[in-house]
Amino acid sequence: MFPAKLTELPQWKRLFKEAEKMGQPEKHLRRLLQDQNRLSEFSRSGGGLFFDFSRQRIDQAGLRLLFELAEACNVQQTFSAMINGEKINRSENRAALHTATRCFANKKVMQNGEDIIPVMQAIRDNIKKFVEDVHNGRIVSSTGKPFTDIVVVGIGGSYLGTEFAAGAMRFYADKGMKLHFLSNVDIHNFGEIASEIHAETTLWIIISKSYTTVETTANTNLAHAFMRDRGLSPEKHIVTVTSKGSPGDDPTNPILACFHMFDYIGGRYSVTSAVGGVPLSLYLGFDRYERFLRGAEEMDQHAAEAPLKQNLPLIAALLSVWNNNFLGYPAQAIIPYASPLAKLTPHVQQLYMESNGKSMTTTGAKVEHETGVIIFGEPGTNAQHSFFQLAHQGRGFPIDFIGVVKPQYEGCCSSASDVSNHQELWANLISQPMALALGKTDENPFKYFDGNRPSSTILLEDLSPENVGRLLAFYEARTVFEAFIWNINPFDQFGVELGKTLADGIRLEIKKRNKDPKHAFTGKDPISAFYLDTIFNGRIHLDSP
Amino acid sequence: MFPAKLTELPQWKRLFKEAEKMGQPEKHLRRLLQDQNRLSEFSRSGGGLFFDFSRQRIDQAGLRLLFELAEACNVQQTFSAMINGEKINRSENRAALHTATRCFANKKVMQNGEDIIPVMQAIRDNIKKFVEDVHNGRIVSSTGKPFTDIVVVGIGGSYLGTEFAAGAMRFYADKGMKLHFLSNVDIHNFGEIASEIHAETTLWIIISKSYTTVETTANTNLAHAFMRDRGLSPEKHIVTVTSKGSPGDDPTNPILACFHMFDYIGGRYSVTSAVGGVPLSLYLGFDRYERFLRGAEEMDQHAAEAPLKQNLPLIAALLSVWNNNFLGYPAQAIIPYASPLAKLTPHVQQLYMESNGKSMTTTGAKVEHETGVIIFGEPGTNAQHSFFQLAHQGRGFPIDFIGVVKPQYEGCCSSASDVSNHQELWANLISQPMALALGKTDENPFKYFDGNRPSSTILLEDLSPENVGRLLAFYEARTVFEAFIWNINPFDQFGVELGKTLADGIRLEIKKRNKDPKHAFTGKDPISAFYLDTIFNGRIHLDSP
Hints:
homodimer; alpha/beta; Rossmann fold; 5-stranded parallel sheet; 15 strands; 43% helix; 12% strand
């Protein structure tokens, strides 16, 4: 499917020349922005979002070359192959079908001889039924009371996407249920949630594809003990989201309900599967969850069908490759000017860095260029008062600014300034990308700004469930498009295995010592032995180790 | 004070050669770690913390050169000058005396002819008195009830440090007061807090040095309106932390209390001043706050007095410069294996990136090397299930791992594994730095790990207020030591000014349009005009702009 070695493509080589050109003074953003048509030529709308890349360091020639690169790399064909169920996750011989979880269209997607679209519909129907039963008091706690708290037990892909979506749509949370996330194995995480919930009316949603994730198992065991200590019946308080036949889907272990996950939906792409579906529907109501899915579907369709030059996530992916491989930026910030989108950045940080932090092509050859960048960020205007000093006068990095046209709270004019808080927020959102791009010359060296800092601006009309879904699917599509350009596999994650293997060895030592206080760690390397001694001693030997 | 141009120092040039050497196979961390004395030679304890840099990509020769660099740059002398009140913030002609806020020693620190140590003591005494009056019910709400909620209104340096410290010490929050942070001008931030607090028993702490910070002013105005709408008297619910004589320190505007800030304590260094002191003392009790200060003081003394080769924050600074300028890493992660330290990273992100994101030396010459890196991170083990794929198999970046020997919650053995949650956390904390350092060869290219990823590990014995103070002061000292090596000014932040200036222009347009619906934005550049139109129209014109 991938035609030639990326670095040997003529487009790849010409892009380096183009990047060199962008270093010339007449290609400074200050100059590019003098073109009165800059915005109309370097912005697109589609899939319900607006995408302005007028402040990226690129001109028409560069953009044309990027489009040629996308064509040479067959990225749109690969995207189609993905949504149609081809096993494009080659290293694991799996499909990647997160788009099927929100496919309401009349189409078939075959997987191992079965059309999975009705399978996804059936899971949604089950979620709807279960959630309505909870909301209507037909399913109640073991003491017969309506549930008031939901604890999502899951980590990584079983957690971050749901946290983002729940935060973004929290104005719709009118079901009287509080949502908690128990992700970290750190006992502080459990201890704090235990002190906040009403044990008697808490529903625990255990999410793990294998149901053997160490952190999730440890926390599930604590949850069981916590309930039993309070005379509650855990089986009446637990729902699982897991693979068919996993230890969490064991008919001899009765629970309230089990919803299935599939190997063709990776954790970090699973928000629109039962992973997000169960907690989000409980928290927001199934109808809002479905609206969220329909927004994501709209962006999927846009990503799949919009022509190359109109395709928002594909253009965003090309610009990201441009900034990374050709202009040399190693990191990218995502700055939503909307507090409810605060958890978008940690979600995309996982989605993107776990997908694209790879060094091998899909066929196992070492890549000869940089792959994924570091993603970080905090909401604006907070970020302006935090790390933007470095953005303006230190090393530059590209930024995705995200704006929401209409806030969930209306009005609230601050009497002192005749400007509402929302308008004040927007005054900053309009100014920052421009200040970064333009810079400012000044005789005082401390007030001199180089400018030429690239950014995009993405607009949502409001924080409706549809728009949150669109934004989610935009970043998912952007992420895989980038991988398709590089011909890396955005769906495996072998990089997390080595740490797990080493942890198995350390855990074994801990178990031995727990059983035998005389067990010494002499079999381990001196550094690991030092730390093992430290935790069993309960103090740091502040002399030399 | 700074002897020669940094890049012309012989040590600087020799460090490049040394860095080149580290690229050789026999200098891979896998090889360096075969030395059984690696940990004892490449770790230090001091100021109450333990600092292990055995997994940094450095050998004895490199370390010696870094120490020579520190001597050549007079960094310890500059640190002494700082704590003794010299005006080392040259661009603003100010001292930088955050260390004085926690100086309990019998010493004088003169500033403009006045010993400020008693001034700091007097502020602490005032805070103590005020807080005890609140806790004992001598100061009550305008309706005569004890306060239950605290809202800290402040942004950037008036917010992030306090959020970190409050989160880290929240187990000590036994005063029955909930703490909220109203930082962002985004109306969603105000709206959400307004829906959570008990208006009648809420104490608002307005924190702004100038008392003209746009975001803080807008939110303060909303708070006034919110209270008046509910028949409450704002003056009985408000405390300010601000400069003497600012609009927040106006005797004709009565409030509960005003505590002073000083121009010689920068926002991002102000946690141990009244900025953190008032909210933290209310939340935790004054005694815990004072213990926090004493921990910070201990680290200050260590940073000031420990010899170069034993000085934890100075060694950390040298390693950061090494990783950045010589090994070429543009970013650094901070990964606390302790959920309560989750907000350390955003705090240090501000502290470090705002301090060291500079391009000019203290004398206004353009620096000829990279300065501050990008700081990011999430707590472990969460980060392992998020972006660590990229750390292991994508581009490497240095990491500060932070471990806490004793958790605040005891025991909690998960019956399934005979390993407690805290031990499981530690099994991972021990394994990850090692996996990153060692890597793994494998015939399967997808399971191949380069290794040689550098990291440090910092240990706290527990989350006592003293240790949280030590950790805070460690990162403060590390930050300024780095700046002193580069001879940049870590105390100004002119980079945030340009965005503010442009926002003034946009705000003016908004005001005009608020008054006159016919006002058109034709005076602005086309991009700004497009966004202004968009927010006034309340929708995105999805046709071409």
